[in-house]
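Input/output pair, single chain:
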Amino acid sequence: MELIVMNWLGIFSLIATIIIAIITINYRNRQHQINGLLDAFKILNNREHRSSRRKVYELYLEYEKYEDLLIFDDSPEVVDVRADFDVIGTLVKSGNIDE
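Output:
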């Protein structure tokens, strides 16, 4: 009888360990995504990056008027915005943030 109780105790312990491991892994993954999202906001929220996006938007409005793609060629702000999107794309691709 004592052997049966110890076997059940072992089985319950194993099941509890597996459940705790699954919960811990899910929590860690969620925390990893939150940290990735915070990193993305840090990248996009500084003044320089916001002014670059504003300039690209202004260039886009100018492009809509004249339909000249060369407007975007010599602008360092366009390069900055592309780099921002590359970083965000890398965070999405790596699973740090959801698409």
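Helices lie at 2-44, 47-66, 76-93. The chain has a mean pLDDT of 87.
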